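Case study 2.
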Amino acid sequence: MIATQRSGTGSMSPSSRSPSGPYLTVSVSDPAKMGSGVQAYISYKVITKTNFPEYEGPEKIVIRRYSDFVWLKDRLFEKYKGVFIPPLPEKSTVEKFRFSAEFIEMRRQALHVFVNRIAAHRELQQSEDLRIFLQADEQTMERARSQETGIFKKKPTDFMQIFKDVQSKVSDVVLGKEKPVEESNPEYEKLKKYLFQLEDHLAETQKHAYRLVKRHRELGQSLSDFGKAFKLLGDCEGNGLGKAFSEFGAKSQILAIKLQREAQHLLMNFEEPLKDYVRAVQSIKATMTERANAFRHHCELAEAIKFKEIDMNKLRLTRSEKLMEAEHEYEQLKADGVEATGKFERIVRTMNEEIVRFQEQKTLDMGLAFHEFAKGQASLANGIADGWRSLLPKLESLSSS
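Prediction:
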């Protein structure tokens, strides 16, 4: 069991735990710029606290970069079919944003959430790749990262063959020679429809959250400029009216700071969690693609077994010498078919469990995000109202004199 709770920043953080129970908590902190020019990157301090027996002691501190997190995600996606692997934040290629303080902090928070979701997952937390990521020294991590896995092991000639195969398949479908093999399951169709709608609605909500953050920032900047202008106007007057103008300008600048702070709060605790769930749905869709591939492979092998049975019957009738070879191929196909069917069924079972977990976590995370939004807006509205209200007696006395 992994004990975690959502912190006020929208990231996973360790909660109180029983000393006797197993625990695995991770923090991603202290981003630092390394190198210069096009070779520059941000490193992070990753601190792991655990009593898992396979780990090297109760606490370990390592330095990791973004590409190390990508390595971990890719390894888990390759090995844990059917599991919804947590998403990573996007990689910015724009230099002026890549090293801005705001972008670095948003990425740090997203990476913190990413690795803690893995550490909290009862299956993923047992991963050897996670243990390497959390404990290996930088040289070992670099070697592991440089080892190409999966499709990236293929040679250029293999890639050309893959491309030709895909072209051939696409041509067959377009010309009506072959229809794509797809799983026909009402419950699964319902799930796919829900996820596509969820992605659209989350993306739309996140877009408006972005506009709300932008509006707060622009309003804060306008109020700050407005306050400066009034303070200068007050300096010109130099009497009771001038003092009132100066106080009005000073209060405007104080309230502008409140708006800027709330904009940052909205960004980190409302917009970013929404964006994270858009990425999470995209990650689930990647798992759905794996399920579709497994189903297709299972069907193709079942079809190949039927054709092989027909071939064997023909060979038996003609007493062909090729019968023994065909029987051997048939047994191999059957074994492959059993393996493919088992893989597909495991993915289905795992996805059924994962969608329940996803729904439960989404309810908690979205509830927290909207609570933070409402609380921040209420606090901002009260602060602005109190700020202007405090000026009223002075302005009223000035207008009545």
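The chain has nine helices and five strands.
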